[in-house]
Design brief:
Elements lengths: L1 H31 L6 H19 L6 H28 L7 H22 L5 E2 L19 H23 L1 H11 L1 H6 L4 H27 L1 E2 L3 H16 L4 H21 L5 H15 L14
Antiparallel strand pairs: 1-2
Helix pairs in contact: 1-5, 1-8, 1-9, 1-10, 2-3, 2-4, 2-8, 2-9, 3-8, 5-6, 5-8, 6-8, 9-10, 9-11, 10-11
Length: 300
C-alpha cells in the first residue's frame, strides 16, 4: 500500500506539471485553432531563465526562497515575452493561411528555439538547484510526499483557481471565450482579437514557465531538449482530455501522470515515455474528441 501511494503521489506531481503546460496548448487551440508545437520550448526557456537568475543570485547570500520567487518571476517575464514574440512573427501572418502552414511554422519555431538554446548554453545536462526548503511538518509523511512535491501541488492548484476565475469572471476572460466561439462576431461587437490572442499566449507561456521551474527543481537537472519531451506529453494530455477544454486538459494531464507512474512502477520504467504515445493512439482511435471534448458540428 505504501508503494502504491508513492506511485500515485508521483503521478499526481507529474500530472500537475503536464497540466501547467497543457493549459497553454488548449487555450491557444481554443482561440485560434493552432497546435503550438513550440510551446514546450517556452517551458524550457522559462526553466533556463530561472537557472541563470538563480545562479546569479546565489553568491549574494539571498534567502533561497526569495531566490526561487525572483527566478520564477523572471522566468514568467521572459517566457511570456518569447511567447508573444513567437505569435507575432510565426503565427499572426499565417492566420488566414491553410492550417498546415501554421503547423509547419510551429514545428520550425520549436526547432529554432531548441538550437538557439543549444548554441547559447550547452548540450549537456546541467544541475538545477532546489531552493525549496525541507518543511518540518511533513516529516511524518516524507516517504510519501517531499517539500518540492507539496509546493508543486499547491502552486498548480493556485494557478488552476486563478485561471478559472480569470476566464469566467473577468472582462478579458469573457473576450477570450467570445473569440474562441466566433472571432468574426467578436470583432463585430468591438473585441480586439489581436490583444486577446496575445494575452492568451502570455498566460499560456507564464503557466509553462512556472511548470519548467518546478519540474527542474524536482528533477534537479536541465538541458535544451527537455521542452520537446514535456511538450509532447502535455499535448497528449490536452488531446486526452479534449483539446480546447481547460478542465479536459487538467483531467487528461492527471490521467497521463498516473498512467506513467503506474506503468513505470508495476511494468517497467524503460517504457515510461512510451505510455504517453500508447494513450494517444488509443484515444485517437476510440474517442478522438477526448474525455471532455465535444465533436465539432458543421453547419450545412
Amino acid at each position: 500500500m505504501e508503494y502504491f501511494l508513492q506511485i500515485i503521489i508521483s503521478g499526481t506531481t507529474k500530472g500537475s506539471i503536464y497540466a501547467l503546460i497543457a493549459l497553454g496548448y488548449t487555450m491557444v487551440y481554443g482561440i485560434i485553432k493552432l497546435i503550438n508545437f513550440a510551446h514546450g520550448e517556452i517551458y524550457m526557456i522559462g526553466a533556463f531563465t530561472a537557472l541563470i537568475i538563480g545562479a546569479t543570485l546565489t553568491p549574494t547570500g539571498m534567502n533561497p526562497v526569495m531566490i526561487l520567487v525572483v527566478a520564477t518571476l523572471a522566468a514568467i517575464f521572459f517566457a511570456s515575452g518569447y511567447g508573444v514574440t513567437m505569435e507575432k512573427i510565426a503565427y499572426k501572418p499565417l492566420r488566414k493561411a491553410p492550417r498546415l502552414s501554421a503547423l509547419i511554422s510551429a514545428i520550425g519555431m520549436s526547432m529554432f528555439l531548441q538550437y538557439y538554446v543549444l548554441l547559447t548554453q550547452t548540450e549537456k545536462f546541467l544541475p538545477f538547484p532546489n531552493f525549496i526548503p525541507d518543511f518540518a511538518f511533513i516529516q511524518p509523511i516524507r516517504k510519501f510526499l517531499n517539500s518540492t512535491q507539496l509546493i508543486i501541488l499547491i502552486v498548480t492548484g493556485i494557478v488552476m483557481v486563478l485561471l478559472t476565475f480569470l476566464i469566467k469572471f473577468t472582462r478579458i476572460g469573457k473576450a477570450m471565450r467570445a473569440t474562441s466561439q466566433d472571432n468574426e462576431m467578436a470583432q463585430l461587437v468591438g473585441i480586439n482579437i489581436n490583444r486577446v490572442i496575445s494575452f492568451t499566449f502570455i498566460v499560456g507561456s507564464a503557466t509553462a514557465a512556472i511548470g519548467g521551474v518546478l519540474i527542474c527543481s524536482y528533477q534537479g537537472q536541465i538541458n535544451y531538449y527537455i521542452g520537446f519531451i514535456a511538450g509532447i506529453k502535455a499535448f497528449v494530455a490536452a488531446v486526452l482530455g479534449g483539446i480546447g477544454s481547460i478542465p479536459g486538459a487538467v483531467l487528461g494531464s492527471f490521467v497521463l501522470g498516473w498512467t506513467e507512474s503506474l506503468g513505470a512502477g508495476y511494468i517497467s520504467s524503460d517504457y515510461e515515455d512510451a505510455f504517453a504515445f500508447i494513450i494517444l493512439i488509443l484515444i485517437l482511435t476510440f474517442k478522438p474528441s477526448g474525455i471532455l471534448g465535444r465533436k465539432d458540428l458543421e453547419k450545412v
